[in-house]
Amino acid sequence: MYKHSTQQQRRNQIETLYNAGITKGVDICQRTSIPKQTVYRVLNQIKDKKSLQHKRGAGRPSKIKANDKRRIAALYQSNPRTSLRSILPRLSSPVSISTLHAQVKRQNFVSKRAVRVPALTDLHISKRIAWCKEMKCFDWSKTFFTDECSVWLDSGRVNMWIKKGQTVHLPTFRHPSKVHL
Questions:
Q1: Residues 13-26: pLDDT tens digits?
Q2: Residues with Cβ within 8 Å of residue 88, at least 6 apart in sequence
Q3: 163 by DSSP, 3-state: which?
Q4: Backbone Cα Rg of the chain
Q5: What's the burial of 40, exposed, middle or buried (CB within 10 Å: 0-12/13-18/19+)?
Q6: CA-CA distance, 18 to 142, in Å (whole number)?
Q7: What is the DSSP string of 13-71?
């Protein structure tokens, strides 16, 4: 969008100078620092009385309809954990997973891992602080520590589609699914 407005400003600048009587492309290039090729192309459009408005590109039209685009954004804002594959059947037009992925990225969603934070209540926090204060002067030399081996049953990683710059905190438990050996 920004690129087209800059191009339109250049076209308007060249047209203004042309209407002011400066008809040589070299003179317009020197005054405006616009590339020579651009100046001559715009001057030819003016002389042929063609429109200086930006023409829409000749690319393929989008397969995803406007209402589907809104639906995708609403689904990810309501539940960031929704997978791309689970959204496909909810769309009114059949599209591939790569088309859907490109559309999600165009809407400024990024796939990120949620920041894992302990699921602590105010009561948990106050009890932990009290325990730390109580054990501050404890004689730890009489404590025996052992090693243990754990097997994790899940990775605990959760990918989410969220807007760029946004952070999601995922409450986690102190002991996720694992088996001690």
A1: 888 888 888 888 88
A2: 95, 97, 100
A3: strand
A4: 31
A5: middle
A6: 93
A7: HHHHHHHTT---HHHHHHHH---HHHHHHHHHHHHTT---SPPPP-PPPPSS-HHHHHH
> The tokens 């290039």 sit on which residue?
29
- Pick from 63, 65, 66, 45: which is nearest to 54 by CA? 45
Residues 92-140 pLDDT 10s? 889 999 999 999 999 999 888 877 777 788 999 999 999 999 989 888 8
Amino acid in position 69: K
169, β-bridge pairs? 115
Q: Are 35 and 29 a contacting pair, CB within 8 Å?
A: yes
Q: Is 163 within 8 Å of 111 (Cβ atoms)?
A: no
CA distance 80 to 21: 59
For residues 170 and 178, give the distance between their C-alpha atoms in angstroms, rounded to a whole number: 19
What pTM was estimated for this model as a whole?
A: 0.46
